[in-house]
Write a structure and sequence with these properties.
The chain has helices at 51-58, 96-108, 114-130, 144-156, 180-194, 214-226, 240-249, 256-262, 280-289, 297-302, 310-313, 336-349, 356-370, 397-404, 410-420; strands at 7-17, 30-41, 44-50, 63-74, 76-82, 133-139, 160-164, 166-167, 200-206, 231-236, 270-274, 292-295, 321-324, 388-392, 426-431, 434-438. By secondary structure, it is an alpha/beta fold.
């Protein structure tokens, strides 16, 4: 028996991108309505455009939410984040390798406890939604239970999430190590239960080359070949000590990137966190394999890892696909706005100006394209899933003061949000047409 369509309409400033503003004239890369309307039928966007044209045609047959002076956007997308590291954020005083041993590995051992894993998944997803993030690619721990409970909680909220069990069979505490054979069995079981179920997808997740033997990396490549629609996520060239350690473990490899390539782990569904310390041959290899370099500026700055060279990686004739991510808990904020603010500063230090149009494109459609999900998310185009964020342009006195000076100019409004915005800007977050977060007034 059919049910009646549930129709909602959101009115406010509306912005959606349709192309990378770096590649075409910025004004042609987006659609913007100062008084716009997004109509949602059940879980998908039905109509988007000027409110004056849309609202009369609805004849009052829609639940209307008016967001005066707020900005309605596609939900933000975070393509590299660690849900077991929520309690590791703001841990003082060390660079990557020491930080992992002193803080991260200690915390991750707690995820053998299902109650702890579930409570953390709830907290983590609450934080994402409070920051307007509706999709993420997530590292879990080595424990299969950590993946099961994360996916179960994400499924209950109808979230579009990617996640996977960390694979580690050396150079880690015994409590966090599996074996190549065990990881193959466990990943296969998790893929069978969760991949492409509801709005979920699996990611094969060797933590990085330091913590996986050749046998385990070979297993990871085998899994990728056997399941071509899953993702691969790992870390690459984040820290100079890390790079040197990989060289000592794989002395025959031409480079760190070549290690992953040898085992069939580089491809258009491969997400590589950091990618700071790369030589020219590695950049060419990433370009040739269409793999994604995931920029994590707050994490890189916090851990002193280095400055991501956006201009170099985007340089023709060998541009690399780019994504932008928080990398919590090395990252210091769940907010994609704060992440974009730090990205702007890093780009400036490397002689590259990151425009607000590029930043907001990257947080939405750009990251969706990196995940090959732009047919479903990252845009307000009719037919897309209704994952949206509503940003309050008056969230703080400082933001109001600055945006007033923009005199309605979109570039000035976006740049103020990018530099001054944070979780306080999130008025509401919608997931598949349902209001999943509302800020307390």
């Amino acid at each position: 028996m059919s049910t009646e369509t549930q129709r909602k309409a959101l009115r406010g400033r509306v912005l959606t991108f349709n192309e990378d503003p770096r590649l075409i004239e910025a004004g042609a890369s987006y659609d913007y309505w100062e008084d716009g309307c997004v109509v949602i039928d059940d879980d998908r966007i039905a109509i988007v455009g000027d409110a004056a044209a849309i609202l009369p045609a609805l004849n009052g047959k829609a639940e209307l939410a008016t967001f005066t002076n707020d900005l309605i956007l596609p939900g933000f997308i975070d393509p590299h984040v660690h849900y077991p590291q929520t309690r590791v954020m703001a841990s003082y005083g060390s660079q990557l390798m020491d930080w992992l041993e002193r803080y991260t590995f200690v915390e991750e051992q707690k995820f053998s406890d299902p109650e702890h894993a579930h409570a953390t998944a709830v907290f983590f997803l609450d934080q994402l939604l409070a920051n307007g993030t509706t999709t993420a690619s997530v590292f879990c721990t080595v424990h299969p239970t950590s993946v099961e409970l994360f996916f179960a909680e994400a499924s209950a909220r109808n979230l579009r999430m990617i996640a996977g069990k960390s694979m580690m069979d050396r150079n880690a505490p015994t409590e966090l190590m599996d074996t190549a054979e065990a990881s193959y069995v466990e990943c296969n079981e998790l893929i069978g239960r969760w991949h492409d179920r509801s709005r979920l997808a699996y990611a094969i997740t060797p933590r990085f080359a330091i913590t996986s033997t050749e046998a385990q990396l070979d297993i990871a490549g085998r899994l990728a070949a056997e399941h071509p629609t899953v993702y691969v996520q790992t870390h690459l060239a984040e820290n100079l000590e890390e790079v040197a350690t990989v060289k000592s473990l794989f002395p025959e490899a031409a480079s760190y990137t070549a290690v992953y390539d040898r085992f069939g782990l580089l491809g258009p569904r491969t997400l590589l966190g950091h990618c700071i310390h790369l030589d020219e041959s590695e950049i060419k290899l990433l370009h040739d394999r269409a793999a994604i370099a995931v920029w994590c500026p707050t994490s890189n700055n916090f851990l002193g890892s280095g400055l991501f060279d956006l201009a170099r990686l985007q340089e023709e004739p060998k541009p690399v696909r780019i994504a932008l991510a928080t990398d919590v808990g090395g990252g210091t904020s769940y907010s994609m706005l704060q992440t974009a603010a730090e990205a702007y500063k890093v780009a400036q230090l490397k002689g590259r100006s990151l425009t607000p149009f590029e930043a907001f494109y990257q947080m939405t459609l750009g990251n969706a394209r990196a995940l090959q999900l732009d047919h479903e998310i990252g845009t307000l185009a009719p037919g897309s899933m209704a994952d949206l964020v509503v940003l309050d342009l008056d969230a703080t006195a400082n933001l109001t003061h600055r945006i007033d000076a923009a005199h309605g100019e979109l570039e000035g409004i976006l740049f103020a949000l990018q530099i001054l915005g944070d979780d306080r800007c999130t008025r509401a977050t919608y997931v598949a047409g349902r209001e999943a977060f509302t800020r307390a007034t």
